[in-house]
Structures are given as structure tokens and as C-alpha cells.
């Protein structure tokens, strides 16, 4: 016996598809015995029982009145015997089944007939062929609304407002029931454009509320055109742990949520969270998705997370937008549930902050230094950030609420380098400004200065150099006012880089000179070397080659003092480039060769290979000399 099940969330179109499939199969002659249809109403307050359903099926088979057996057991026997003796193949459609006990005794005993079941819950325990329905593609969504409006030959709104129609389908989440309700509203509001309904939904910010307020009547199957009751019946059936996690997932930022983040939201260990999430997926209220691989991001997931990893990293969990809106509404309507949701957000922010901080450490890590905890390497840290980006950026926006401001602002600062590195400039600018606003409201001048610093860096990378100059100037002034001279020196250094990018090289030289002097006064030799190197780059831009070489030399002395071979390699590479631009190709080759040796000592294989290749171009031997690196000589 072939049994198929159509599963999916309420309103996805299971009944419509089952009926259409039955009509087409009958038209093709597949079921000469016809179709038996029974609505089990499994999600109503009073579902149809199996005993009630068998009476309806016997009646459809012509067994009624005096022919109807008096006992329930005899009724099932008669039903099965009649189907077994029925030679014409028949299709049995069991619509809206909520659980197997509703339909198991209704299944034919022989394999001659076929059965099609629709349910919001996956009957995974049974050997059925299960088809999971998803939301409609955009073209089918627009076609559904267009067809519904085409009953009026004078209604040309879909043709006149194609963009508004596409927006409407997105706001409806491409859910067939939501699209039907929207079409019905448009039919009643014939004098208004589609854009008006779109504007109404955007103004309220909740498509579920607008569609429910505007829904009237029933569909062609006699069912109410209303979304909220459909979602409420599914929600009420959930055990307490599933209902709780559904509410909390609705509060999560981003379009989907990782397993680790979901566990943090709920305050559960990961294994327990996975179990509840899988139950919600079986109820078709959550969708398990696996992100597509991206070669630039490395491997994601448990196998790639490395030390301190959180497992199941590949699986993410997505709520339909209307289910999310429903969950948010449930939490908002109860003071106890609101507090539950706020505590969950704090847990999620704490999780994001801890992991983003470690990932950020990897982005700043240099070969030869101790490796950060969590993640196996930089690629894995980037893969985690890539997977969680939407949620991370969304969580920062909670900084507007006082309860979350400190954590959200801290998270924003941890994300700045990642967003700059991946060139997500609009996100980087937005979160830096959000962090700055939160710090300003809290009277945290150092936090505000740090936010200006991050904003300046991303603006410079985005090519908005003059705005970057303004941001770094604000940061410098705040650090100076707070008496934090070390971070003031860093701000001067950043300001110099922005001025150089803006083509204001003379001012950049002054800024880097200030940075160098402040680092020297503070006794921070390592950062003093960085300032010397940046000063060399700026002097080189102004054709002050001798002074640039002197600055590079001072940077080299300090980097060698600390045995920071990566920085030694960078500075030697700058010296090589300086000689190359001046036409001193032999000297350029020598410095490229020295740079490759330094990068090798730092275990920076890529940089070592690149500078070695450059050295070969200028006639240097393929391998660096075996003796220790000579001191810099000007």
C-alpha cells in the first residue's frame, strides 16, 4: 500500500494541493473507484476521532441506515472488508490529521488503494512517503494574487503595480493563506492600490495583525480566512518546553539562528536544545536549514570548529516571518513571558559577545603569538562570524534599550574588524554608531571614543576618508579629555592613516609624529615602532625618501628588539617598495629577500613566498642567507 503525507505549517496550502492532486489523478483515470475525502480537523478544539471518521467513510461508500453495523469494531471490519473487495482503485484523502491515532485504523488493509494524508506534524514514526511543503516561489506568489484579482476584468492593479505586488508577497512571507487573505482585502478595497496595503503593513510593522484585522469570510473549502487562529491551534498543542523555545526563537535577531545561539537563548545545553528544536521542526513550526558552502569562509560546523567549539554549527533554525510575528505577540502579551524574553536576550548577547571577542582575537592574531581559545584557526573564526553575521549585527541594535546597552555596545566593538575585513561597510558603520550612541547615553566617554575609533576605521576602508578624519578626531579629543594618553596616541596614529588616505599628507606626518612621541612617553615601544612605520609610509608619499628610510630603520630596530618577525617583515617590505619606486632595484631585491626571511621566522608562509618571489624578480638568490639577519644600515 502506497501512503503519502503532505506536511507543512498551517496555511502552507496542503489541503489545496491534495484536492488538486486528487482531481488531476481522477481526470487521468488513475482512480476509477473515485476519491474518499474526510477532514479530520486535527487542529480544531474538537478534532474528528477515528471512530467518527469511519462512520463518514462508510456513509461515502453507501453503507448507512440499516446496513450500518451497531458496534464500532464491526464498523471497522465492514469498512476494511468493503475496501478489500473494491476492485476499482480508490484514493483516500485524510486531511488535517494531527497524529497517527486519528488515521491508523482508517488505512486500507491491502496495497490496492492509495492514501494521501495532510498534516502539520511529520509522521516520522511511520513508513510513509513524506513531502514537506515550503512557501511559494516569488513568481507563484504573485500569480496567486493576480489570479484572485482577475475575476474582475477591470482590475488591472497587478499590471499597474508590479513592484508593490512583489513587496506584498514578501510581506506575506509567500504563505498561500496570507496571500489569499491579502487578495480578499484587495478585492474589497477596489478603489485602493496594492501599494496602500503594503504601506499599511509597513506602518503597523506586523503583517499578521493587518491581515487578521482585514480578513473576512471563508475560502472555497469553508475554512475561515484568518491566520492567527491557525497559528494558535498549532501553538496550543505544543508541550511547555517546545512552546517556550518557539517564543524565544521569535525574539532572536536575524533570519535564522544557530544551534549554539538557540541553546544560549533558552539557557539549555546544546543536546537538550537540539532535541526541542527537532521536535519543533517535526511540528513544521521551525525549519532546519544548512547554509551553502562558501570557499572563502573555510569549513563551518562541528568538524571545523576546533578547540572549544560548539557543535552542530552547520544546522541553523528558521522561523517563518508570520510564525515569528505570532511568537513575538504571545510574549508581548504577558508580563511573565516578557521578562522571560528579556532574560533570554541577555543570555544570547552574553554568548555572542564571548564568542565574537575570541573570533576578533583571531583576526588580530599574528604568527608566533599564543593562539586564542576557541576555534582552531582564523578561517574557522571567520566561518563562525559569517554564519552568525545577521544575528550578531541584529543583536547590536538592542543597544537602544538600556538593559542591553553595555553588552550590545561591547559586541559592536568586537565585530568592527570582521565587518571591515569582509567589507560589510554599511553594517560596520551602523553598529559603530549604535555603540557610540549607547556609550554617550551612559556617560561612558571612553566607550564613546572607542566607538568613534571603530567608525573611523570602517569609514576609511569604505573610501569615505574625510568622514574618517572627523571620526578619529572625535576619538582623539575624547581620549585626551579623559587623560588616556596611550589611547590618545593610538587615535593620533589612526588619524594619520585617515589623513593620508584623504591626500592630506602634510597633516598625516604631523599626526604620526604626535603618535610616535606619545607612545615613546608612555613607554610603549611596540606601538612606537608601528608609528615609526606609518610615519615612513607617509614621508615616502611626500617624496622625503631619506627621512622615510630613517623612520623604517627605527621601526626595524624596535621590532627586532621584540623579535616581532612579522612586523619586521612588513617594515622590510615597505623599505623594498621604497627602493623599487626610487629605481634602486638591486637594493629593493635585497630588502624583499630580508623580508621573506623575517616572514619565514614568523611562520607567515604566504607572505614569505610572495616576498621571495619579488626578490627573484630583482635577481636575488631563491633562498635567504643562512646567517642571522644583519642590522639595518642607512
Relative strand content: 5-15%
Radius of gyration from the CA trace? 33 Å
| Widest sheet, order of strands | 2-3-4-1-5
**Span of the ends, CA to CA:** 89 Å
Looking at the overall shape, the CATH architecture of the domain at 2-132 is 3-Layer(aba) Sandwich
- Molecular shape: elongated
Overall structural class, as computed from helix and strand content, comes to mainly alpha
| Sheet of most strands | 5 strands, parallel
Poorly predicted regions are 294-312, 624-634
CATH secondary-structure class of the domain at 2-132: Alpha Beta
* CATH-defined topology of the domain at 2-132: Rossmann fold
Helix share bin: 55-70%
The beta-strand count equals: 8
- Average pLDDT: 89
Please identify which CATH superfamily of the domain at 2-132 we are dealing with.
P-loop containing nucleotide triphosphate hydrolases
Count the DSSP helices.
27
Explain this structure to me?
- By secondary structure, the protein is mainly alpha-helical.
- The strands form two sheets. It has a five-stranded parallel β-sheet, sandwiched between helices. Strands 6-8-7 form a three-stranded antiparallel β-sheet, sandwiched between helices.
- The chain is elongated and about 110 Å long.
- Among the domains are: 131 residues, Rossmann fold (3-Layer(aba) Sandwich), CATH 3.40.50; 92 residues, no CATH class; 92 residues.
- The chain starts with a strand and ends in a 17-residue tail after the last helix.
- Helix 19 runs parallel beside helix 21.
- Helices cover 61% and strands 6% of the residues.
- The chain has 27 helices and eight strands.
Amino acid at each position: 500500500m502506497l501512503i503519502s503525507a503532505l506536511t507543512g505549517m498551517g496555511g502552507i496550502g496542503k489541503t489545496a494541493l491534495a484536492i488538486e492532486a486528487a482531481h488531476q489523478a481522477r481526470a487521468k483515470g488513475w482512480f476509477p473507484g473515485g476519491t474518499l475525502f474526510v477532514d479530520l480537523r486535527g487542529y480544531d478544539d474538537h478534532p474528528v476521532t477515528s471512530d467518527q471518521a469511519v462512520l463518514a467513510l462508510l456513509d461515502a461508500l453507501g453503507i448507512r441506515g440499516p446496513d450500518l453495523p451497531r458496534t464500532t469494531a464491526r464498523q471497522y471490519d465492514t469498512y476494511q472488508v468493503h475496501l478489500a473487495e473494491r476492485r476499482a482503485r480508490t484514493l483516500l484523502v485524510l486531511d488535517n490529521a494531527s497524529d497517527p491515532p486519528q488515521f491508523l485504523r482508517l488505512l486500507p488493509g491491502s496495497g490496492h488503494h492509495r492514501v494521501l494524508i495532510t498534516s502539520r506534524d511529520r509522521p516520522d514514526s511511520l513508513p510513509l512517503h513524506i513531502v514537506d511543503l515550503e512557501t511559494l516561489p516569488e513568481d507563484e506568489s504573485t500569480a496567486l494574487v493576480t489570479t484572485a484579482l482577475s475575476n474582475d476584468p477591470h482590475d488591472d492593479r497587478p499590471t499597474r503595480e508590479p513592484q508593490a505586488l512583489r513587496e506584498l508577497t514578501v510581506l506575506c512571507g509567500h504563505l498561500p493563506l496570507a496571500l489569499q487573505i491579502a487578495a480578499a482585502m484587495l478585492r474589497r478595497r477596489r478603489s485602493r492600490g496594492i501599494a496602500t496595503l503594503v504601506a499599511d503593513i509597513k506602518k503597523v510593522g506586523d503583517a499578521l495583525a493587518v491581515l487578521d484585522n482585514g480578513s473576512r469570510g471563508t475560502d472555497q473549502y469553508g475554512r475561515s480566512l484568518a491566520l492567527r487562529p491557525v497559528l494558535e491551534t498549532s501553538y496550543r498543542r505544543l508541550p511547555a518546553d517546545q512552546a517556550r523555545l518557539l517564543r524565544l526563537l521569535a525574539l532572536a535577531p536575524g533570519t535564522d539562528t544557530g544551534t549554539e545561539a538557540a541553546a544560549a537563548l533558552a539557557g539549555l545545553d546544546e543536546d537538550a536544545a537540539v532535541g526541542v528544536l527537532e521536535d519543533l521542526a517535526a511540528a513544521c513550526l521551525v525549519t532546519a536549514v544548512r547554509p551553502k558552502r562558501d570557499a572563502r569562509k573555510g569549513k563551518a560546523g562541528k568538524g571545523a570548529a576546533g578547540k572549544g567549539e560548539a557543535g552542530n554549527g552547520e544546522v541553523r533554525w528558521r522561523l517563518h516571518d508570520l510564525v515569528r510575528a505570532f511568537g513575538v505577540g504571545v510574549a508581548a502579551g504577558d508580563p511573565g513571558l516578557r521578562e522571560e524574553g528579556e532574560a533570554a536576550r541577555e543570555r544570547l548577547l552574553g554568548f555572542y559577545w564571548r564568542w565574537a571577542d575570541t573570533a576578533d582575537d583571531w583576526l588580530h592574531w599574528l604568527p608566533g603569538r599564543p593562539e586564542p581559545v576557541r576555534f582552531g584557526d582564523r578561517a574557522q573564526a571567520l566561518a563562525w562570524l559569517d554564519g552568525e553575521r545577521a544575528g550578531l549585527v541584529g543583536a547590536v541594535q538592542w543597544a537602544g534599550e538600556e538593559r542591553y546597552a553595555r553588552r550590545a555596545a561591547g559586541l559592536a566593538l568586537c565585530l568592527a574588524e570582521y565587518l571591515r575585513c569582509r567589507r560589510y561597510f554599511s553594517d560596520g558603520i551602523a553598529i559603530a554608531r549604535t555603540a557610540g550612541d549607547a556609550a554617550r547615553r551612559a556617560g561612558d566617554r571612553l566607550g564613546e571614543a572607542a566607538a568613534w575609533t571603530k567608525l573611523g576605521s570602517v569609514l576609511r576602508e569604505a573610501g569615505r576618508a574625510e568622514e574618517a578624519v572627523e571620526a578619529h578626531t572625535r576619538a582623539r579629543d575624547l581620549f585626551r579629555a579623559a587623560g588616556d594618553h596611550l589611547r590618545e596616541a593610538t587615535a593620533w596614529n589612526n588619524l594619520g592613516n585617515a589623513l593620508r588616505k584623504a591626500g592630506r599628507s602634510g597633516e598625516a606626518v604631523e599626526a604620526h609624529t604626535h603618535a610616535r612621541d606619545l607612545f615613546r612617553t608612555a613607554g610603549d615601544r611596540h606601538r612606537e615602532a608601528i608609528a615609526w612605520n606609518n610615519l615612513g609610509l607617509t614621508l615616502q608619499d611626500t617624496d622625503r625618501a631619506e627621512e622615510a628610510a630613517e623612520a623604517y630603520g627605527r621601526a626595524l630596530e624596535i621590532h627586532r628588539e621584540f623579535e616581532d618577525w612579522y612586523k619586521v617583515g612588513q617594515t622590510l617590505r615597505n623599505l623594498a617598495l621604497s627602493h623599487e619606486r626610487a629605481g634602486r632595484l638591486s637594493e629593493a631585491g635585497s630588502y624583499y629577500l630580508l623580508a621573506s626571511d623575517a616572514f619565514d621566522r614568523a611562520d607567515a608562509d604566504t607572505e614569505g613566498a610572495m616576498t621571495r618571489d619579488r626578490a627573484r624578480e630583482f635577481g636575488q638568490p631563491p633562498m635567504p642567507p643562512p646567517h642571522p639577519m644583519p642590522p639595518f644600515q642607512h
